[in-house]
Amino acid sequence: MRIVDILYFLFLVTLSLDPTGFHSRLKDLLFVVLVIYGVIYCLKRRQYLAPINRITLLTILLIPLWGMFIAYITGELKDSAYAMSQVRSMLYICIFFFIVTMKLNVLLKAVWINGIIMATVTLILFLLSQLGGIFLVAIYDYCNASDNFTMAYNRNFLGYSVNGLFFKAGSLIIFSFIYNLYQYKGKFKLLFSIILFLSLMVAGSRTPMLVQLLILLVYLYDKNIIGKFLTRLSALALLGMLVMLTYMLATQKNEKSNEVKYENFESYVEDIGDKGHPIWGAGLGSDFFAKGRNMRLTYTELSYMDILRMYGLPVGLCFIFLFFAPFFWLWKYYPRSQFLKRYSQGYVLFLILSGTNPLLLGSIGLTALSMFMAIVNKTKEEECGMWKEEAEEPLVVDNCLLR
User: Fold this and answer.
1) What letter would DSSP give residue 334?
2) Most buried of 127, 249, 269, 337 (most Cβ within 10 A)?
3) Strands (E) located in 149-300
4) 365-395 exposure pattern, b = at least 16 Cβ within 10 A, e = fewer
5) Contact 99, 39 (CB under 8 A)
6) Any idea what the Cα angle at residue 382 is, between residues 369 and 319, rounded to 5°?
7) What's the pLDDT score for residue 340?
């Protein structure tokens, strides 16, 4: 492991614990250092970049400028501060230039360890909050006053009141959980699995809880824990129950979060179809009336609808596709590596989770996209050679995934 790889790990930890730079500018400093190193390395070594990655980099860097231009010429630029913040956020796609220089083993382990740290801190805070008294007051007051670090919830799930804590970068725990289940073979596997599983189960939010249950269910299915027939029968039954639970939670009445999202969704449809510009969009920095909040807003937690409203349907759909492109690009390798298959599917779950929270278009979402762009690049690099059948379980050896 190189010293710069340790700096990347510190970048991930800082990104997770202080994503908006509220407490320090360390995240931005590490980002600049890593990108400069990555660009110099790529130029010096003539690093191969897959064509899809070149297109993604160029598009994501230019598209917010196009959005601001549309908003300006149409007179819809209402929040220039938000528009400029989006331009700055998109720069985080440049972390790809460093990630592509890392060995795949090192990258995956850095993400895994960062997830364990985040999960441990989450559980400690959650357990302290359950003690009540001064701990509860201190933790929830801090979360409400500085929600860039972690968010505190009190939700009603099917008639039950649930308190929860959720890191804004908590969706990155998905990758740690999958890596721990499929790749880690150490003696702490069960302990780490429990910590990673529970960290999103105590989030007090439906989507992270359902995502963790689905990942665990698929793992039990893959490993045939109780025999092939019984495992698959149980998996199908549990999957049916999970679908039913998802439907019940999504359609639960008198749940404030549901009501706000549904009303905001209606507002997006009305704004795009009736009042907006479905072809070229309203532009980056424009606002609309959100029924769920009963006020004019520049953006909400529905990130994909934000993209379609601001950039229009043609450009917006292409923009969204770029986030999912690594998943489809890696599709042909799935039969050869069960781990890569599940890890990539975990990325889709991450995109779903991030798309219902304002995370997708920030440093967290773009760092995750950069990571999977780098994995795509690894599969295309000549030094990886042919995929080989050398082990019963998928392994990661240097830069190559082997099944």
Assistant:
1) G
2) 337
3) 150-157, 160-167, 288-290, 295-297
4) bbbbbbbbbbbbbbbeeeebeebeeeeeebb
5) no
6) 25
7) 86
Total Cβ atoms within 10 A of residue 207: 20
Tokens of 55: 């297109």
Q: How far is CA 268 from each of CA 252, 273, 303, rounded to the nearest angstrom?
A: 21, 8, 11
Q: Which of 214, 328, 311, 219 is nearest to 272 (CA)?
A: 311
The number of residues in the chain equals 403
> Pairing mode, if any, of strands 400-402 and 295-297?
unpaired
Largest CA-CA distance found in the chain, in angstroms, rounded: 64
Residues of the chain with pLDDT under 50: 157-158, 245, 247-252, 382-403
Q: 376, 52 in Cβ contact below 8 A?
A: yes
**Tokens 């349907």 appear where?**
313
Distance between CA 297 and CA 286 in Å, rounded? 8
Phi and psi at residue 202, to the nearest 5°: -95, 15
d(CA 331, CA 344): 9
As a dihedral over the C-alpha atoms of residue 320, residue 322, residue 326, residue 332, rounded to 10 degrees, the angle is 90
Radius of gyration in angstroms for the set of CA atoms belonging to the chain, rounded to a whole number: 21
What does pTM read for this prediction? Answer: 0.84
Q: What are phi and psi of 251, to 5 degrees?
A: -105, 10
pLDDT digits (tens, 9 = 90+) for 63-77: 999 999 988 888 888
DSSP 271: I
320 contacts: CB under 8 Å, gap ≥ 6: 304, 307, 308
Q: How far apart are CA 27 and CA 30, in angstroms?
A: 5
Element (H, E) at 324: helix 313-329
Return the pLDDT at 295.
82
